[in-house]
Amino acid sequence: MINIVLFGKPGAGKGTQAEFLKEKYNLIHLSTGDIFRFNIKNETELGKLAKSYMDNGDLVPDEVTIKMLEDTVEKNPDTKGFLFDGFPRTQAQAQALDSFLASKNWKVTATIALEANDEILIQRLLERGKTSGRPDDQDEDKIRNRYQEYNEKTAPLINYYNNQNKYYPINGIGSISEITARLSAVIESL
After folding, report:
1. How far is Cα 1 from Cα 107, in angstroms, rounded to an integer?
2. Which residues are catalytic?
């Protein structure tokens, strides 16, 4: 089993690359955004709970996010592995993921980071915002705020995974196929 955490700032290309990698390596793509939307749309108990926080403008607590992710993992017991996209975002989430996977005798195999200059990523997001309909991709101040939050809460995971010899940074600039090739080289070296 191979479990990959796909890491990078908003706009780094995680979602785009996840589509290629899940097909190539027969992995289950777990996007926390997709899991949230599914649970809220289907009005699951966890979806209702998450929505209650979101409706108040609050962040959904780690426990709720982790439980949603665990429920999704449990639905795929025979997979060859998982591709985690947008999770973990904090050290507490990373530790919870490690504990959950260990309870199944699994582990995070690698964390692969798509690295790119902030200014390039901001332009990518502003361009995406023209067609995505996402308001958070259409306002440069909101984008910069997301990066600030990433730097404060998510960037410390670099050390967390580096200390476990599971952190693999790659250049996230280039054509989609070039970046896919770089990701594949890391995965195939594991």
Report:
1. 9
2. 14, 89, 128, 134, 146
pTM for the whole thing? 0.87
Task: Give CA separation, 92 vs 15, 106, 122, 123, 133, in Å.
Answer: 23, 18, 28, 31, 31
Listed in sequence order, the residues at least 6 apart from 119 whose beta carbon sits closer than 8 Å to its beta carbon are: none
| CA gap 150, 16 in Å, rounded | 19
What backbone phi and psi angles, to 5 degrees, belong to 118? Answer: -55, -45
Report the C-alpha gap between 15 and 85 in whole angstroms: 7
Tell me phi and psi for residue 173, to 5 degrees. Answer: -110, 135
For residue 105, give the 3-state DSSP assignment: coil
Structure tokens at 20: 């290629």
CB 111 within 8 A of CB 167: yes
pLDDT tens for the chain, 190 residues long, are 999 999 999 899 998 999 999 999 999 999 988 898 899 999 999 999 988 887 877 778 889 999 999 999 999 989 999 999 989 988 999 999 999 999 999 999 999 999 999 999 999 999 998 998 878 788 888 888 888 888 888 889 999 999 999 999 999 999 999 999 999 999 999 9
